[in-house]
């Protein structure tokens, strides 16, 4: 039985960077899953880029961030925790999203000031050479 069809309880995960469909890490961690939601959400975080991947930092007020939301197993979440460097680089937090009327996991940077280039529109895009 594959990971994606197991009887494990499913969790919702919002991704906004290299785990989105057609980005490099999607193929290693989420393929062949299909997002249950794609679009902008308003959350109290803003997006910055270090060039290779985005980072979400706490913000004053709500900002629009483009996400894809997947139903994943705990096993997949733990693999992504390792990818995201939890708890050193990111923490996995839960946030209620009206768009799916549920709590959703999201990886955010904790206890650091924003670094990198602000992505004001909240959409992380592929670089030309990716």
Walk me through the structure.
This protein is mostly beta strands. It has one domain: Roll (Hypothetical upf0131 protein ytfp), CATH 3.10.490. The protein is 12% helix and 42% strand. It has 2 helices and 6 strands. The protein has helices at residues 24-29, 74-83, and strands at 10-15, 37-49, 54-73, 91-97, 102-108, 117-118. The protein has a 4-stranded antiparallel β-sheet. The protein has a two-stranded antiparallel ribbon with strand order 4-5. A hairpin with a 4-residue loop joins strand 2 and strand 3. The longest helix has 10 residues, at 74-83. The chain is globular, with a radius of gyration of 14 Å. The mean pLDDT is 92.
Compose a concise summary of this entry:
The chain has 130 residues and is mainly β.
Q: Which fold does the CATH topology refer to? A: Hypothetical upf0131 protein ytfp
Order of helices and strands: EHEEHEEE
CATH homologous superfamily label: Gamma-glutamyl cyclotransferase-like
Computed CA radius of gyration, to the nearest angstrom:
14 Å
Main pleated sheet: 4 strands, antiparallel
Structural class: mainly beta
User: How many beta-strand segments?
Assistant: 6
How many structural domains? Answer: 1
- List the total number of helices: 2
The rounded distance between the terminal residues' Cα atoms is 32 Å
Helix content: 10-25%
Broad shape? globular
Mean pLDDT over all positions:
92
Low-confidence stretches: none
> How does CATH name the architecture?
Roll
What portion of the residues fall into strands of 2 or more residues? 35-45%
Read across the widest sheet, the strand sequence of neighbours is 1-3-2-6
The CATH class: Alpha Beta
């Amino acid at each position: 039985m594959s990971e994606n069809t197991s009887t494990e309880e499913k969790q919702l995960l919002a991704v906004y960077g290299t785990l989105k469909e057609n980005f490099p890490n999607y193929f290693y961690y989420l393929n062949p899953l299909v997002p249950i939601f794609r679009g902008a959400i308003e959350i109290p975080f803003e997006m910055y880029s270090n060039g290779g991947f985005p980072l979400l930092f706490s913000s004053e007020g709500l900002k629009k961030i483009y996400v894809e939301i997947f139903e994943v197993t705990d096993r997949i979440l733990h693999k992504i925790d390792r990818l995201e460097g939890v708890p050193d680089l990111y923490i996995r937090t839960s946030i209620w999203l009206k768009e799916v009327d549920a709590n959703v996991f999201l990886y955010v940077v904790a206890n650091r000031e924003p670094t990198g280039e602000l992505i004001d529109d909240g959409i992380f895009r592929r670089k030309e050479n990716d």
